[in-house]
């Protein structure tokens, strides 16, 4: 018996629509990361970009648990003395809610050469409108619990 290895030319990509309204940020981001990695497909191959396109709407209506709204912060450093930049989660959620989901999903993907390609397939919009009306998009419910397979069917 031979091992099946999928070629990148044979990958079929789908478009999924995710409504982030009243979803918990971390749980939503981890499930989006699984779809972007292609782990929801039975022919998953780790070294091939099998990611589907994911369109997230209602990014401003995301929820977080506990005191994260007040205490969570994002830090980055410019490598110069005094170059520490701190952004509070609450202000970032109010000004750029798409950036909050983007950062959460990016940090849940493995750090390798495929991460940037997978992130380009993630489209996040603040409201309920998106410009991808011409593409056939399937709504997917990522709030279901995991079973023996990677994700439950929509």
Protein described:
The protein is 27% helix and 17% strand. By secondary structure, the chain is an alpha/beta fold. The two termini are 33 Å apart. It has a domain at 13-63 and 97-139: Ribosomal protein L13 (Ribosomal Protein L13p, Chain: A), CATH 3.90.1180.10. The chain has a four-stranded parallel sheet, with helices on one face. The mean pLDDT is 90.
How many E strands?
6
Describe the biggest sheet?
Answer: 4 strands, parallel
Order of helices and strands: EHEHEEHHHEE
Shape, please? globular
The helix content, as a percent range, equals: 25-40%
In whole angstroms, the N-to-C terminal distance is 33 Å
For this structure, the CATH topology of one domain is Ribosomal Protein L13p, Chain: A
CATH class bucket of one domain:
Alpha Beta
In the sheet with the most strands, the strands line up as 5-2-1-6
CATH homologous superfamily (4th level) name of one domain: Ribosomal protein L13
Oligomer: single chain
Query: Which blocks of ≥5 consecutive residues have pLDDT under 50?
Result: none
Radius of gyration: 17 Å
Features:
single chain, 154 residues, alpha/beta, Ribosomal Protein L13p, Chain: A, four-stranded parallel beta sheet, two-stranded antiparallel ribbon, globular
Topology record:
Elements: E1 15-19, H1 25-37, E2 53-57, H2 68-71, E3 73-77, E4 84-88, H3 89-95, H4 97-108, H5 115-119, E5 122-124, E6 137-139
Parallel strand pairs: 1-2, 1-6, 2-5
Antiparallel strand pairs: 3-4
Helix pairs in contact: 1-4, 3-4
């Amino acid at each position: 018996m031979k091992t099946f290895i999928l070629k990148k030319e044979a990958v079929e990509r789908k478009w999924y629509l995710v409504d982030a309204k009243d979803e918990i940020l971390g749980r939503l981001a981890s499930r989006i990361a699984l779809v972007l990695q292609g782990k929801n497909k039975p022919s998953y191959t780790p070294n091939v970009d099998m990611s589907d396109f994911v369109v997230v709407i209602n990014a401003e209506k995301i929820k977080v648990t506990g005191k994260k709204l007040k205490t969570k912060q994002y830090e980055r450093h410019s490598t110069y003395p005094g170059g520490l930049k701190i952004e509070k989660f609450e202000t970032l959620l109010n000004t750029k809610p798409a950036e909050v989901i983007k950062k959460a999903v990016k940090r849940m993907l493995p750090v390798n050469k495929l991460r940037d390609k997978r992130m380009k397939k993630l489209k996040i919009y603040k409201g309920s409108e998106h410009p991808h009306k011409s593409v056939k998009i399937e709504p997917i419910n990522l709030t279901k619990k995991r079973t023996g397979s990677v994700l439950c069917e929509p």
